[in-house]
Amino acid sequence: MLRKVLFWSAAVIFPLPLVLTYDSVATEPEQLRFYIFLGLIAYSWWLLSIVLSVRPPWLDRFVGLPSIYGLHGMLGALAIFAAYIHSENSYSPSRLARYLGDWSFYGALSVLCFSVFFLSGWLTDRSRLFLSVKRILEAVFRHQFSVWIHRLNLVIVAMIWLHTHLLLRVNQHLSFMVLFDLYTVVVLGVYAWKKWIAPDTYLAGTVIGNEALGESTRKVSVALASRAETLQPGDSVFLRFEGSPAVSREWHPFSVTDDDQETLTFTISQHGDFTRGLGRVDMGTRVRLEGPFGRFESIVQGRDRDAPLVFLGMGAGVAPLLSLTAAHHMTRDIHLLWAVRKPEDAYYLDELEKYQAASGGRLRVTTSVGRFRRGDLADVLSVEEVEKGEFFIVGPNPAVLASRRLLRRIRVGVRRIHDERLTM
Asked: pTM higher than 0.85, yes or no?
């Protein structure tokens, strides 16, 4: 909790140098100065959201990608609110400055609305209607197109930068303008380095396996050119397939199924426009890997070592839980609950049986055709698991949210429920 408080405090701290510097040199009336402050805060929040969009691995290990994406999305929404008040209560004699301010505001509002619907789970993870509409519209607005729409935030930042430079009341203060430009250059420099230069330093690998598991799931194996030394059980990585016409070259996150640091295996559910093309990815296709990301292992190691671990996986969501099971089935009491659509979709049962035999009774596996319901959980979970267990949930985002509600209803403490939904 303390880590997240410190992390979210960045939203307050990041704009302060700009606000305080302008306050020290400004000559405007106090009320107008306040509205200018709101404009600076909105700009700072847009810059900070750009920094968060590059997914700093050290920050992921500190608070986790879900928190990073959560703050990223929240900053975009709060910046729109602050920018609206700023635009409605300030003025400029420069027509171009006014136009740039208006265009950037309406552009940012449009990008936010589009991203909330297509890239975040704020609506689609919580409403079947919105999820159905999204799946229909994705035939036109494919994921790659949505990513490029989101990147229009860079154009919006450039317009706001020029808007500020055209304001005489602002650009006359050299010390402030130097700091303002420094903020902009550093943030855009970090983004450019991370997106276009750093990928050449990421882990590289080659596809050596690509087999179907059932009707809509694939097992993809990637042999790495060097060991993934920082990979931990339960981690995920972002993959980019290079030179394959079957899929786009955008980055997509997938969880690692085992804890092998030389050959990574991914169990992937084929539901999106990107994953549906994975069956046509050829052997020998080059892959870049960004990461690893994840905090499951640090939570397992950092909490009560005597508490039982309860893993709840839905479909291909069992992938990261398998690597955690492989790492801890000899030393921890583990109960793995796996929900599948059909009995034949439980394609890792043979492997789990081996873990059970080696665990000396410490590993229990419960499978269900269809999701676990409240009565099912009450029947299969022991009193000790409900009262003391650490619960880890992985699966489609709506199913994860529903499972969290079920666990709360059977009195599992909210601080003992963990998931990693990679949406805002």
From this structure: yes
